[in-house]
Each structure stands twice: as structure tokens, then as C-alpha cells.
Design a protein that fits this description.
The chain contains no helices and seven strands. It is mostly beta strands and 106 residues long.
Length: 106
Amino acid sequence: PAPAIIPEDSIDITVGMDPDLSVKEDKVSWTLFPNPFIEEYQIEIQEDLDKVGYIQVVNVLGSEVEAISPPTSRRLTLGRKLSPGIYTVKLSYGKALLHKKIVKVQ
């Protein structure tokens, strides 16, 4: 069958992004160290804590294994209760959700 021909003026599509979600991860300064870690790791947030809603750690299955809501300090120590494996640390900043991977060994 021949492809359908649609007049240009019959479709109105708007593609955009909420300006509040335009925070780029490289613009928000937060670090996880050491990575990989053996017993525990630290999260250091250099941004305004009032804009940080929560920190969530999830395993490879997507299950939450640690959470802090809201963080009360710029430097947090986590990971002691985690089993060895790969985790994603999520940080909500304003309306944006940022994430980094971290690995626990041994």
C-alpha cells in the first residue's frame, strides 16, 4: 500500500520540555565516594539542600534498599547494610531526578 499523505496543516505536534526539568546532572554538584566501596560510601552534596527532596538507593531489580527524605546534611554516610552488588543512587533536585551508579564489593 502507498504511504498516507497528510497535509502539513492537519497535524499540530508540540515537542517540548518542562523548563523546571532542565537541570542537567553535570550542573548539579554531588559526588559518591569511594566507588567501588567495601563497607560504606559517602554522598556529598554541594548544592542548596532546600532543593534536594530525597535520596534513594535502589538495587538492580529496582527495589528501594536505602532512602533519606529529606537529607539534613551535605555529607551522608550510607551502604553499611547493603550486600555486594550494583546500585543506583537517585537524588531529586527541584523537579529533576538525577542518578549515579555505585558498586559494593566483597
